[in-house]
Amino acid sequence: MKATQCIFLLIFLEVVKSQLPQVIPAKWDVMYGKETGKNMSLTIFRFKVEEKYSVARIIMSCNESTEHNPLLAVFREKLAVLSLQVPLIVDNYEYSQVARTLCPFTEYKEGEAFTVEVTSAQPVRYNFRAELVKNFFLYNNGKRLVTASASEPVYLRYDIPDDVDSVAVHVDSNSTTCMTVSVQKIGCPVFDLPDNVNSMGLHQTMTTSATIPVEKSRMSSFYVVFVVNTNDDLCSEIMSIKPNLFDYTIPIVFWACVLLLVTIVVFVYHYFDGIWERRFLSRAYTHLEDDAQEERIRDFYDFKRMSEDDDLKDYDLLTDCKDMMVVRAKASLTVADLSMTPYELREQKYDVYKIALAIIGIFYNITVLQLIISKAGSLRQSGDLDECTFNFQCARPLWYFVAFNNVVSNGGYVYFGLLIIVMNYCRERSFRRLFAVQPALAERYGLPQHSGLMTAIGLAVIMEGISSATYHVCPNNINYQFDTALMYVIGMLGKLKIWSLRHPDMVVSAYHAFGFLGIFLMAAIAGVYVHNMIFWIMFSIIYIGSMMLISLEFYFKGIWTLNIRELRNSVRMAWASSRRLSCIMPAYKARFFVILMLNIVNTAVVVYGLEAHPKDFLSFLLIPFIGNLFIYIIYYILMKMIYREKIPKRALALLFAAVISWTCAGILFNQRVSDWSKMPAISRELNKPCIFLNFYDNHDIWHLSSAFAIFFSFTAINVIDDDLMFVVRNTIRVF
């Protein structure tokens, strides 16, 4: 029994002995070739610190260790604990020799020791050496030769002299290998690995040369760190992504076929439209001559009757009044009353819109493209996917794009914008041929035809496609304005186009319109970063004030002035001459109704903003811009019906298609798959898989459907009054 107990005791002592660390009094600059023990036992090297502020560098190599059985080393100092493993694995590269410079021995006294602990899961042979770094300090105008590699970074120290305010650290290399040079504050640990060297201080990538200016006010002493990168990606152009193109071909070809089908339909439409035009010209001359003869006879007898009327003999007869204040004060305005300016002058005024927008678009989109291209490159280099709020569950990378599907789906805006311009040009040519044969049509019949605003709308839609595509290269709060700025332009131009149909002389100058929009955009950008109550109160006052001015212009048709004295006198005279408060009853009830409705809607939007303070301020402002446009279109259609004006069948078909497209677009827009206004992790909770052809997500289909909706809407607006072509202009009502 005693013999058995002795055996167990000996076994226990042997096990305990095998687990005790092997302590080796080590010497500097001596290479040690050792083998790690079994069962993760430690080998401890003890080094005496011979001099305070000295710096140690450790070099370890091992050819037998692997990723699953690495050699582990821990360096214990008073200020920090540093560890490394062999092989060192960085960006899928393995290095069997590793060297690290330790923090200076600032807290040590002579004779004290620091330790290096080495172990591994399975025994491996390794080589180990510790040396003291000589010439650790840099000096002014002094050159130092340094050798570094991806697994053996190096850093040196520099103290800026008292009489120097700033210095420049200049580095030259005889190799084109990509390296990062970093200037970091004195501290421990030092960030000297490829995956953390950019986390502290100033840094530059270099191949053969780098210079880093350092101000003494920022860092009076610093480390200069040299880290060789594992590859040259940071110093050279990034290779484009080349996935299996077959997966991308079918979705893109499908979308191209849809656009081709639309193109065929448009050309067929214009072909039959040309046949209709020739038939129309053959009948137009007789029709117009008969109307002109009847009008001349009617004017003659009206003038004769007024001249013979005894009650009118003492008054001057204004049979052809051209005074704007007199004409626009009539209870019932006609288009002839608001189209007295010569056609050429009006045409020049409308053409300024397309010219100004083209110039703005060139300068705006150049800077946008430059910013986004550089952003795409930095995104791939940094690998920080929190920078951009993609729908990662349906992100299809190609070339330099993380989500190529989000970019290419904006092609519909560009295509339909071009189609609007081409169709508008063909329409303009058709009318010019018609007016050349029958000049009376341009002067006295139908609505005045001006193509400048519709061409500007086409340009705005093209620019929206380009801006939206650039935004989707890296969606975030900084560049979301690129996606919305042109939406504001489209909304503004759409309202001006409808207004110009029956108010040809009253369209605001393009300079004033774009100037107002520029101020509006500045407020929109401020709303992205400022969310306090003071901003919302100021915005609400300015917004409601602007709505009041626009309402007055719409109601009085430009015959009012912002003069307090005249306004007070007008109110006093109206009150004195009125009976039973009749002065408060609107003279133009239809105008008053639509103004009241628009102001209620816009006030509700402002009240909602004051209450909710939405963070996505740019999208919030789209509500009144697009909402007012929709309300104005509905008002225009209802007024045509009230005055018993026919709506052409093609306009009805286009409006029906627009309603369907806008409904689909609205549903898809509200089914968000990402949100830049939320934190990246919260935004990714909205991510959803692709819903069409395993390529397009909800937002991509929103792009496609809204492009169709914009095309149908503005094409309908362009042809909605074609029924008035043979109607005398002084009988067409203004509303």
TrEMBL record:
<feature type="transmembrane region" description="Helical">
    <location>
        <begin position="701"/>
        <end position="720"/>
    </location>
</feature>
<keyword id="KW-0325">Glycoprotein</keyword>
<dbReference type="GO" id="GO:0005794">
    <property type="term" value="C:Golgi apparatus"/>
</dbReference>
<dbReference type="GO" id="GO:0005886">
    <property type="term" value="C:plasma membrane"/>
</dbReference>
<feature type="transmembrane region" description="Helical">
    <location>
        <begin position="355"/>
        <end position="373"/>
    </location>
</feature>
<dbReference type="Pfam" id="PF13965">
    <property type="entry name" value="SID-1_RNA_chan"/>
</dbReference>
<feature type="transmembrane region" description="Helical">
    <location>
        <begin position="252"/>
        <end position="272"/>
    </location>
</feature>
<keyword id="KW-1133">Transmembrane helix</keyword>
<keyword id="KW-0812">Transmembrane</keyword>
<feature type="transmembrane region" description="Helical">
    <location>
        <begin position="508"/>
        <end position="529"/>
    </location>
</feature>
<dbReference type="GO" id="GO:0051033">
    <property type="term" value="F:RNA transmembrane transporter activity"/>
</dbReference>
<feature type="transmembrane region" description="Helical">
    <location>
        <begin position="590"/>
        <end position="611"/>
    </location>
</feature>
<feature type="transmembrane region" description="Helical">
    <location>
        <begin position="535"/>
        <end position="556"/>
    </location>
</feature>
<comment type="similarity">
    <text>Belongs to the SID1 family.</text>
</comment>
<dbReference type="GO" id="GO:0070508">
    <property type="term" value="P:cholesterol import"/>
</dbReference>
<feature type="transmembrane region" description="Helical">
    <location>
        <begin position="651"/>
        <end position="669"/>
    </location>
</feature>
<keyword id="KW-0732">Signal</keyword>
<feature type="signal peptide">
    <location>
        <begin position="1"/>
        <end position="18"/>
    </location>
</feature>
<feature type="transmembrane region" description="Helical">
    <location>
        <begin position="407"/>
        <end position="426"/>
    </location>
</feature>
<feature type="transmembrane region" description="Helical">
    <location>
        <begin position="617"/>
        <end position="639"/>
    </location>
</feature>
<dbReference type="GO" id="GO:0003725">
    <property type="term" value="F:double-stranded RNA binding"/>
</dbReference>
<dbReference type="InterPro" id="IPR025958">
    <property type="entry name" value="SID1_TM_fam"/>
</dbReference>
<dbReference type="GO" id="GO:0005764">
    <property type="term" value="C:lysosome"/>
</dbReference>
<dbReference type="GO" id="GO:0015485">
    <property type="term" value="F:cholesterol binding"/>
</dbReference>
<keyword id="KW-0472">Membrane</keyword>
<protein>
    <submittedName>
        <fullName>Uncharacterized protein</fullName>
    </submittedName>
</protein>
<dbReference type="GO" id="GO:0005768">
    <property type="term" value="C:endosome"/>
</dbReference>
